[in-house]
Amino acid sequence: MLKNKTKNKVLAKQVISFKTFFQIGTGLTFKTKRYCKNKAFLFHLNEKRKYVITMLFVFFALDIIFLDRNMKVIEIKNNLKPFSHYKPKNKFAYMIEMLHNKKKNVNLGDLLEMQT
Which CATH number is 2-114's, of 3.20.140.10, 3.40.50.1110, 3.30.1330.60, 2.60.120.1140? Predict the structure, then answer.
């Protein structure tokens, strides 16, 4: 479960973690909107840096939340369109992807947490 600790709100009951180079590189490529429903996708990056986010072969819009090492929200990108790309303004350690309009109750500075 992914929870906004600052606001005590559940963001997603199911979290899929991407940790390997291949998982991070492919992300939600060729996944369906139905598969992504009610899920959050957490990308664990090995170091805090900037990555370009590409939506190549992702067929639906996403909201992306960028986090530092403490799981604090440092940037939010709403409504990233299919077949587009985005270069975050900040270095980040974690990234969460959710279907567009599903990241309610998240603002800059909020602290998120994973619960099992």
Answer: 2.60.120.1140
